[in-house]
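Q: Got a minute? One more chain.
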Amino acid sequence: MLRLALARLHAHGRLAFAGRPRLGRQVRFDVAPGALVRLGDGCRIGDGCRFHVGEGATVAIGAGATLGERCVLAAHERIEVGARARLGDEVVIVDFDHDLADVERPVRRQGLLTAPVVIGEGAVVGTAAGVLRGVTVGDGARVAVRAVVTHDVPPGARAEGVPARVHP
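A: Always. Here it is, folded:
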């Protein structure tokens, strides 16, 4: 409970929680003004996880969800992890990408493209997998170890590979 209180203090009130979420050691919340991280009752955040949440963005972790060690969630719009979902160690979820339309302008001067990422209830994302902007992983779906998910995964389906291919 002390870790949660300290995290809330360091996040300047931009961390909200219901019930009793559990935080591992060295969990870092980098939450911009106007952004919010919500932790559901009984969710578990593993050691060394990092939340990078840009201005106006939200990250919501559902009740009973589990994030493994050293996961990274980077949001400029919205990331949702459903109730009872499980993310393995070192999973990366990113809801934005650089706009590369103008090849004459440096990347840092071009905008960002954003789209929400949703991990459904009871979904499982394997160790070291990546889930990119605009992807919905359906309820009960499974993403294999080290897969890179660039398209939606239907409920109950399995996705594996780089880029991930869906198998019913």
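A: The chain has a mean pLDDT of 92.
Q: Perfect, thanks.
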